[in-house]
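In response to a reviewer's request, we include the raw inputs and outputs for one of the modeled complexes. The two entities were modeled together in a single run.
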Amino acid sequence: KAGVTQTPRYLIKTRGQQVTLSCSPISGHRSVSWYQQTPGQGLQFLFEYFSETQRNKGNFPGRFSGRQFSNSRSEMNVSTLELGDSALYLCASSAVGDTYEQYFGPGTRLTVT
Amino acid sequence: GESVGLHLPTLSVQEGDNSIINCAYSNSASDYFIWYKQESGKGPQFIIDIRSNMDKRQGQRVTVLLNKTVKHLSLQIAATQPGDSAVYFCAENKYNQGGKLIFGQGTELSVKP
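The model returned the following structure tokens for the whole complex.
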């Protein structure tokens, strides 16, 4: 079974621009969660989507948004990029069974200059 | 507030020795805990999880211990191998928060040949 895939793997953007990241979950998984990883803050939860609905949201500004499509693929968008948005953005999928075991993709490395 | 913390940021062990990675948590309402391994350039990889109604769980070469009295979680790796070198994160989850994981800062395990 193919793992979680994320595109693109690397991205360089300028302050003020916007960016869209994509995540394809493991086949059959219906939950997709997004995390931001930085050296200073570690891994922080952004939001979770299940059946095209945002089920949980972390403590990030409204510039961070996401959506999920009917095939469970998910995108996250960051508008008006700031230097502090430079991070590794990780997507994780889960079958939403009993243990919420999450499988992570390799991440998208975003650099904002 | 909620937090999952790690006692030591780095751990160095000799190949073949057992490793113990510790984690403290502050929220006694968490329902289950997970250990992830992250190698350089990759996303976190699920290792093992444990529900809050258990105190021990074993996997292949790994054992997780949960001490709810002192809010402490540990990961034991038997016969540590060079391939075990990575950053290890503990995370907690509450069933009523879906896929939201709260991660600790991580411990970097270095295995000396």
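As requested, we also summarize the result in words. Chain A touches chain B through 26 residues (CB under 8 Å). Chain A has a mean pLDDT of 93.
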